[in-house]
Amino acid sequence: MPRAGGLRWSGGCSHVPWRVEFHSCNLPFVGVLRFSYGTMGSGKSTLALQIHHNLSTRGLRGLLCTHLDREGAQVSSRLGVAATAVDVGPKLDLFALAQQQVDHHGTLHYLVCDEAQFYAPEQADQLARVVDEFGTDVHALGLLTDFRGRLFPATARFLEVADERCELQVEARCWCGSRATHNARMVDGVQVYEGETVVIGDVEALGDAQPAEVSYELLCRRHWIAGETGRLDDATERALSSH
Ligand SMILES: [Zn+2]
């Protein structure tokens, strides 16, 4: 492992991957698969970019990965920061990708995997194998549940195989002020509970009808169940704006 100013990166002993620590135990360096989860707006992509920045600027070798980021093959934060990333399509073998990196560079210190809820469940297993065979630290970040309130299949697998599971502490709020824990899908302004898990580009063709406008809103559980969103219906909006 590279040294940084007399300090040593600790893969196996530290629970904070972006912190430099003295290596204080005699265990061999081993990687950790950490799954960090939170709602939309909890800063997952910002954190992914920060981890990648901190590790790469210390000379550690790693890759930033994502899938279906709102901006394509890059990780983009709503705060305006972005970096190019490997797009993890459903067929990509992440173990083979890591193997390639190890063959080429001799080592692979870390992988930062954003939008991990959209990965295939078997890709979570591939990442676990990367940790065990190469000692790579894998930082996977994703959503817990979809708009139906169900675990994403990959999220379920990450929770099952991860060494560490961390809930991100940047809280988002429902319109009522309560903690937002659910992502509601809105189709033409109405909350829906059924449909495809992934809708690309935020528009969805509904039969022969015009493509519907699809958006998402963060709600507390009570308002998610009740379908009470903060968005005003068109009639109310018109009535209010005419006064
Ligand atoms: Zn609420």
In short:
The protein is of the alpha/beta class and 243 residues long. 26% of the residues lie in helices and 23% in strands.
Q: Return Rg in Å.
A: 20 Å
Strand element count: 14
Please tally the helical runs, counting DSSP H or I stretches of 4 or more residues.
6
Please, what is the CATH homologous superfamily of the largest domain? P-loop containing nucleotide triphosphate hydrolases
Biggest sheet: strands side by side, in what order? 7-4-8-9-3-10
Q: Helix- and strand-based class?
A: alpha/beta
Chain-averaged pLDDT: 82
List low-pLDDT spans. 1-26, 201-207
Give the SSE string: EEEHEEEEHEHEHEEEEEHH
User: Looking at CATH, which topology of the largest domain would you report?
Assistant: Rossmann fold
Tag the structure with descriptive keywords.
alpha/beta; Rossmann fold; six-stranded parallel beta sheet; 14 strands; disordered N terminus; binds zinc ion
Can you tell me about this structure?
- The chain is an alpha/beta fold and 243 residues long.
- The protein folds into two domains: 3-167, Rossmann fold, CATH 3.40.50.300; 182-241, no CATH class.
- It contains six helices and 14 strands.
- A six-stranded parallel β-sheet has the order 7-4-8-9-3-10, sandwiched between helices. A four-stranded antiparallel β-sheet has the order 12-11-14-13. It has a two-stranded antiparallel sheet with strand order 1-2.
- It is elongated and about 65 Å long.
- Mean pLDDT is 82; it is low at 1-26 and 201-207.
- It binds zinc ion (ZN).
- Zinc ion (ZN) binds at residues 174, 176, 178, 219-220, 222-223.
